[in-house]
Write a structure and sequence with these properties.
alpha+beta, Nuclear Transport Factor 2, Chain: A, four-stranded antiparallel β-sheet, 3 helices, transmembrane, membrane, transmembrane helix
Length: 169
């Protein structure tokens, strides 16, 4: 083994620092979906380069380096770039605000609750999925509330009597 080649036990996949929760102390900040716009700009720039290379060299009949593949690559990269850019929603609602909105939607005092970030639709609109239990001990009600992470509207909510309440007997 040469001096420049790392040993197999040294090669590891790593999460970016903003996604790695190991050793993190304090409230966790969910990454904003608007980060998708950065690679979208790169895709669009490469699509423009491919289209320009194709347009400049398309007059060359039978070119082994530039053919219709350059145009198809430009079209595909442009489509991926547009979808990535338009799905880069900026989240205006954090999990604490989603928990407050969920309490207002269910209509009873909330005890235990948890929020999970999910995405819905073709353009991956960020949404908080909030599971809530009523404040009694044991909780008599439970609910699931979907809160839009972009504008804070309640997408859906469902409440029901807690079936686990029967377990106490």
């Amino acid at each position: 083994m040469s001096d420049t080649t790392p040993a197999d036990d040294e090669l590891r996949d790593q999460l970016p620092d903003d996604l790695n929760a190991k050793g993190f102390v304090g409230p966790y900040q969910f990454p904003d979906n608007s980060r998708r716009r950065r690679p979208a700009v790169i895709y669009l720039a490469i699509a423009v380069v491919c289209a320009v290379v194709w347009a400049v060299n398309r007059g060359d009949d039978g070119s082994p380096l530039v053919n219709e593949g350059w145009l198809w690559a430009a079209v595909v990269l442009a489509a991926v770039g547009v979808v990535s850019f338009t799905s880069g929603w900026r989240m205006q609602v954090d999990e604490k605000q989603a928990l407050v909105a969920a309490q207002g939607a269910v209509g009873w005092p909330v005890g235990h609750a948890s929020a999970q970030q999910v995405w819905r639709g073709f353009r991956s609109r960020p949404t908080w999925r909030v599971l809530v239990y009523s404040a009694e001990n044991p909780p008599r009600q439970r609910g699931l509330v979907l809160v839009d992470a972009v504008d804070g509207t309640i997408v859906e909510h469902l409440t029901e009597a807690n079936p686990e309440d029967d377990w106490q007997e």
